[in-house]
Structure formats: C-alpha cells, structure tokens
User: Fold this.
Amino acid sequence: MLAAGSDNGNAVRELVSLGANLNLQHPRTKSTALHIAVEKTRVDVVRVLLEKGASIALSDFNDRTPLHIAALGGSVEITRLLLAASPEAGLAKTREKMTPLMLAAMRGHTDLVMLLTANVKNVNDVDCMGNTALHYAAENDFASTVAVLIEQRADVDKKNKEHVTPLMNAAGGGHRTVVRVLVNAKANVEAANKLGVTPLMYAAIGGNTEVIEELIRAGAIIDAESDDEITPLQFAESYGNNEAVELLKLAQEKQLEFGAECLEAQS
Assistant:
C-alpha cells in the first residue's frame, strides 16, 4: 500500500511479481492500493495496478470505490483509465447512495462530469436524500457544470425528498449565474418545497438582491405565500435583509402601478 502512494510504477510492478496482494484492504479504512494511488493522483501506479488486475469494485469504509475517489479529485486521466477497465464503475454508489457523477458535480469538475455522463444510464439518479448531480452543482455555484448537466438532459425541476429543486439551492446560496442558467433552461420559478417556500423566498431569506432581481424578471410571484402565509417580503424582514426588503417593496409598488395602468386602459 505504501508503494501505491509513491510515483514509482516499476516498484509496484516488482512487488506484484513477488506475490503482493493487490486487493488487500486496510483494516480500518478498507482502502486498497488502488484507492491510495487514485487519491494521490499516481497515474502510472494506477495504470500498473489495473494492468495487474486490481479490483475497481472494492469499496472503502464509506462504500467509496476508486472511481468515487477519482471523481472527488478531478483527474480526467485516471477516470478514463478506471472507466476503460470497467464501464459499469460509474454506477457504483456510496453509503449515502452518491454516484461518482454526483461527487464530480459537487466539486465542479466540469470535464469529469462530461466524461461521466457518457457512462451513466440516468443523469437524474438520486442519493439517499433525493438529490441529483444537478442539485449539488447548483448548490455549490458551479455554473459551467450546471450547464453541462442540463445539456445532458438533467431535470431542472427535479425535487429531492424535501421537494427542494436545484433552483431553490442556487437561489438560497445567492448564486446569480447559476440561477440565470436554470431560469434560461425553463426551471419553474414557482416551484415550492414541502413548506411552500419558493425560490424567491429562498433568495429573500438569503438577502441576495441580484438573485431576487433575476427571479422577479423571470416571473416569480412577488406576493406568493408559504404554507405559513409568509411572503418573500416578510421573510426578508424577519431575517433583517434590509436591501432585499427595499427591493421587494419597490417591486410590489411597480406591480401595483402596472395593474392600475392596465385597469385604466381597459376602462
């Protein structure tokens, strides 16, 4: 295992020839030599281990396979090697039911996401909380990753177990560019979670005025109410987000003015 962490493929090859167990797992972490080589980004060692028959399916104590480790690290070259050895490796799930694609999206490894989407059956696969790769990319403000996932037919309105959508994640985090990408992909700006909270309410809670503007421009209802009858303005007020409060008040005034003009034109 120590040799796997080095950058000496020849040393690993020699150890294998002497009868070293390629698939020996650490008694505590359950990691194999392949896990370690992948984590250390030792491309030559990974190549040798795969050539000599190291298992890609063995998982560590978190049920992470070497491909999960590669997805977190972002190495396209190592990921290619692992997928070439076992195309089905992309389907493996951790203890939390997370796929390599989800982990790559969570870290914003866009090139890796492009590679992995070609090797999965369902880009909308969910983890134990019902989150997809798109949820994680949106939550962590990786706009380019979000765009790639949408190109690969990720469901922009997919709800997790709490009925939270990727747009809600982006709005709550104040991620304006991601919000814009999702809105342009026709994400539902009026979707609501289990408590009736909409993306605009998430933005009001976070106090991000740029996101609030994006959502209002996309047609979000300014005076919508949650299940507890709380409006975006009231959320902003309760969280002390003064700039958001002023923006939402101004938007309400403009909406009232527009409504009055329409009524006047009809009379």
